[in-house]
Amino acid sequence: MKRNLSICIFLFFIVLLLISVIILFNDHKESEQLLPDSQETQNSESETVINSNKEIKSYQYIILEDQGRLSVYCSDNTTLYMNTGIPVNALTDELKSRLPSGICFETEEELYEFLENYSS
User: Fold this and answer.
1) Which residues pair with 74 in a beta bridge?
2) Alpha carbon distance 73, 63 (integer Å)
3) 71 with 80: CB under 8 angstroms?
4) For this UniProt entry, which segments traverse the membrane (predicted)?
């Protein structure tokens, strides 16, 4: 009798273990399906801009005018990355026309290349 009870308890724990493994596996599978969406959310540091050609580009930095000088902001358009000290009138007319909506850069390298051209 004691042996039968031990076997029943053992089988109960095995079944319980199998059920918990199945539940964990399903949860893991669901989280993998949701992962691409959450990765897109994490990549929201790079905002999206739609050009007139309907081409979608992401950017990390944007140059805006601040009191007659160029300032670099992060992609959220509110976090100041740096004040450049470059006057707006140093820009070409084409760049001045783009300034109200912001001049966008995908990488820090592109940003610094642009700034080097206008800083001296």
Assistant:
1) 61
2) 6
3) yes
4) 7-25
